[in-house]
């Protein structure tokens, strides 16, 4: 088996912040491809090219995986692929910041299920308050209900991806399981992309744009996160990851001119505070290798 190639790493905290900025900037750029490729076409191009990049960078030997390993990889990859698809579909109806905020509910609920601390119920209650504030009320700001359902579905799949990823980590050494999972995700999303975008996916401009999204949303942040995970305490990692909805809103504002209402900003703050609170309490939402956005 060829040796795994290692990439140079930044100091952990700047590296993790750059990882999150890269993911959300990549998601904002991906949204600009929707008029040409649609959400499914963009997902398929991004995930397929991400799989190709990871194969080139890490050169895993998938042929060496046992049947038991594939039984763990298949649900992991399927959850990853459908999570990406539902998240991008939610972006056709929601601002980036709101979609990421709603998606974060999945790992938060998983943290509650895995936690044995009664006080974590308070943090999840705060997150629930944030979701209630996002929900439109009479005379309030409109929130597309299907977009919200899609973002919450992506969050539920994120939680499933986390659990399945734990099984992969136990059974498959190094990054081989991750690359195998992304390969499965590409196989899952490619048919949807072909149905929606067809030959447009093979246009040079689409491939170049998809490659940029794959680099900024998958290959680069994955490498940076892995370096940060090895160096940072779990609580610090969890608190920093809690900033992701805010960084998503910032990317939406800078690159897509998406503005949130003051009430939506308060709702986002509730979710961020809840995630940080659970992390400081010792039960952080596990978000390693998060490729959803």
TrEMBL record:
Residues 146-279 form the EamA domain. Keywords: Cell membrane, Membrane, Transmembrane, Transmembrane helix. It is found in: Cell membrane. It comes from the Bacteria. InterPro entries: Diverse_Substrate_Transporter (IPR051258), EamA_dom (IPR000620), EmrE-like (IPR037185). It is a multi-pass membrane protein. Gene3D superfamilies: 1.10.3730.20. PANTHER family: EAMA DOMAIN-CONTAINING PROTEIN, OS03G0707200 PROTEIN-RELATED. This is Inner membrane transporter RhtA. It comes from Deinococcus hopiensis KR-140.
């Amino acid at each position: 088996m060829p040796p795994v190639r290692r990439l140079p790493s930044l100091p952990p905290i700047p590296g993790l912040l750059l990882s999150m900025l890269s993911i959300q900037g990549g998601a904002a750029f991906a949204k600009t491809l929707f008029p040409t490729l649609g959400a499914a076409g963009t997902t398929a191009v991004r995930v397929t090219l991400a799989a190709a990049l990871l194969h080139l960078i890490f050169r895993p030997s998938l042929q060496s995986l046992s049947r038991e390993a594939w039984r763990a990889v298949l649900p992991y990859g399927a959850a990853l692929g459908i999570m990406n698809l539902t998240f991008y579909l939610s972006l056709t109806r929601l601002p980036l910041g709101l979609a990421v905020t709603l998606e974060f509910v999945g790992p938060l609920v998983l943290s509650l299920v895995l936690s044995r601390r009664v006080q974590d119920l308070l943090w999840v209650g705060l997150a629930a308050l944030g979701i209630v504030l996002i929900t439109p009320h009479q005379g309030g700001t409109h929130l597309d209900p299907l977009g919200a359902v899609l973002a919450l579905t992506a969050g539920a799949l994120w939680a499933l991806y986390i659990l399945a990823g734990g099984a992969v980590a136990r059974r498959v050494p190094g990054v081989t399981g991750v690359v195998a999972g992304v390969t499965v995700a590409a196989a899952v999303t490619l048919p949807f992309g072909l149905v929606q975008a067809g030959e447009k996916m093979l246009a040079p401009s689409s491939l170049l744009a998809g490659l940029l999204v794959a680099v900024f949303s998958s290959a680069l942040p994955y490498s940076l996160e892995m370096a940060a995970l090895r160096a940072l305490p779990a609580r610090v990692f969890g608190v920093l990851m809690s900033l992701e909805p805010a960084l998503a809103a910032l990317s939406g504002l800078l690159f897509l001119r998406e503005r949130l209402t003051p009430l939506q900003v308060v709702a986002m703050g509730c979710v961020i505070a809840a995630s940080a609170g659970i992390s400081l309490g010792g039960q952080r939402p596990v978000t390693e290798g998060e490729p959803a956005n």
